[in-house]
Amino acid sequence: MKKVRFFLLIAGLALLTSCKKDHVDASSTQSLQSSINDMTSSLNTLQQIKFNEALYVLKTFGVEAEGDINELKALGKLIDGKKVPEILSLADQVAQKNNMDWTSTAPPSLGEMDIFGDLNPKEVDSNDVRASSVNLITRYSGDTGSGPTAVQIIPKLVDASGNPVSFSGATLETTLEVFNNGVKLSTAKNIMLDNNFKGFYLKFSSLSAERVTDGKIDITVSVKTSAKTLKMTKIGLDVNPSALKMPAPPKVDSIAITEPTFPDVTTPTGTPADPSTTTPATPKQPTADPKATVNKFLNNVSSQNLKAAFDASSNPSWGSYDAFSNPTSGFGAVKNVSVKNISTNASNPNAASVNATYDVTDKSGKTTALKVTFGLKNVNGDWKISSYKINP
What is the CATH number of domain 133-243? Predict the structure, then answer.
């Protein structure tokens, strides 16, 4: 009798073991969580951490959805039926596509990730970082004698006084966008855990020399906290032209034979042009003072001529006109602007920096004194506002 009970116990354990799933079941949120728990339980501690990191990378950057529940549903569709190695491989692809400094074979780097944690109420939200703005630090590197080959871009969250904000245990989605003359060249994404974030390592060889027309780039970094998305743009960042990605030479078919051409004997021969007298086209230079552009912008905001104000800008961080003119979070909330002082901080034919001091009164009657640095760049001979930083 004891032997029978023993064999029944062994059979029951075997049955329970066989019921554990080795692939994702996304038929419901509950089955998704249950199947992932089953898959995780078969891994060692290190593998569990990397598997959870991979799931977080896929949920954050691999799907397009708003809200945690919708993100989980989209993630379920993406990984339904897949096993652990397939999920790790897919996360590697997503990380590489977004230029993330993460691989499934590297040591753990994102901490304890739980894609289902956001569904449960928390006493403390680790992503509710009380920061006012982002400071950008740039460091060139890789100089082997012919100039730097890369630049490290480090965002730091700061308070209203410009002091670094201390936080830890966060998972802040951080995005780097690289532009030239308003055209986006590349995008990279990563996760900021604390204010010791190493940022982004931008290799100049990843940028095409054909698209960087003036040896400079503009960068915008955005950091998404629970309360808001903080953005900062830096314009006119120098790049090393010799380190840029050069276009591949055209392929020549060695078999093809080009037929010789002969001049039309009926056409009189003219005097050939002297190549030395041909002058290359030069970029159109702005004739207006950059201060005038800022002053006009502020006057248009004050009079709520927001379309004219928006047309005077080329600032990626302001987004669309709807976002720019939003009556709650945009310049549509402004009732009046009283300018105190405007001065040009620096200027060259391609970029300028203008400081402005003014009072802003919103539609509720509240007045705020601001000191703002406007970055401007030359766009086809006109000054366009390309960055906007409120100073302490």
Answer: 2.60.40
Residue of 104, 81, 101 lying closest to 92 (CA atoms) = 104
| Cβ contact 128:225 at 8 Å | yes
The residue ranges of every structural domain in the chain are: 10-119, 133-243, 290-391
Q: What single-letter DSSP state applies at residue 99?
A: T
317: helix, strand or coil: helix
Q: Comparing 318 with 68, which gets the higher pLDDT?
A: 318
> How far is 265 from 244, CA to CA, in rounded Å?
47
Distance CA 217, CA 239 (A): 7
CA-to-CA separations, 235 to 103, 191, 309, in angstroms, rounded: 31, 24, 20
User: What pTM value is reported for the model?
Assistant: 0.52
Within 13 Å of residue 374, how many CA atoms lie on the same side as its CB?
Answer: 26
Helix (H) or strand (E) segment spanning residue 355: strand 351-362
Check pLDDT > 70 for residue 277: no
Please state the rounded mean pLDDT for residues 11-35: 73
Three-class secondary structure of residue 93 per DSSP = helix
Query: Which CATH number is associated with domain 290-391?
Result: 3.10.450.100
Q: Are 354 and 291 in contact (CB under 8 A)?
A: yes
What backbone phi and psi angles, to 5 degrees, belong to 186?
A: -160, 160
- Contact in structure between 381 and 361 (CB atoms under 8 Å): no
Mean pLDDT of all residues in 12-23: 61
Q: Which two tokens stand for residue 346?
A: 């620096």
For residue 265, the model assigns a pLDDT of: 45
